[in-house]
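Thread: quick sanity check before group meeting

JM: Hey all, I'm pulling together slides for Thursday and realized we never actually wrote out the predicted structure for the chain we discussed last week. Dropping the sequence here so it's in one place. If anyone has concerns about the input, flag it before I start.
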Amino acid sequence: MSKKELIEKINKDLQNNTTQEVIEYFLKNFKNVALSSSLAAEDQVLTDVILKQDKNATIFTLDTGRLHPETYNVMDETNLKYGVKIDVFFPNNEKVQELYQTQGVNGHYESIDNRKNCCGIRKIEPLKRALKGLDVWITGLRAAQSVTRVDMPLVEWDESFNVIKVNPLINWNEKDVWDYIKENRVPYNKLHDQGFPSIGCAPCTRAIKEGEDIRAGRWWWENPEHKECGLHKK
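JM (edit): ok, ran it. Output follows.
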């Protein structure tokens, strides 16, 4: 069976399953499975779902070196609540130093190329290390988050990282996410209470205004179709 045929079969088999059932399927049928967590609301939901099924499941996050203090707080709260230590991947220090020398501290504001270069060093390279050897990559993506995500399926083959990518919350809406967090008392980033529906690096994230798209606070100086860092491609 080809990769394409396998993905099509899994999507068909799981199309009517709950998020919990989707997670259970991959934890039981694949050896090397991990959730990549930005510690945002969606990833906190999945952390709760996964750890309730397997206390030893792999969950990792990328520390870009420019995260909000609130993000570190929720990481600590999560570790304490579930009795785990989320794996943390950092960027290569030499590459960060080179980045500073070539485009300064905030050169990412100057052009899309500069911003993508920053994301490449602080996010993409560490993610490649984190995904190395994995069979399945679980993400907290939702279709409603962005125009770049509306067509994402539940399960797909990610050519960039050579891994099966699973989006268990792809059809959830924002209310679904917050209902789960409240009902299960899941730790969450307090920036969400301050108008931050989407949270990334501190210099590239702001609160949104009423009526704005939920991703409007990410790289707000760019057009919507550019608003991905390269972790998740169309």
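AS: nice. Residues 112-131 form the longest helix (20 residues). The domain at 3-226 is CATH 3.40.50.620 (Rossmann fold).
JM: adding both to the slides.
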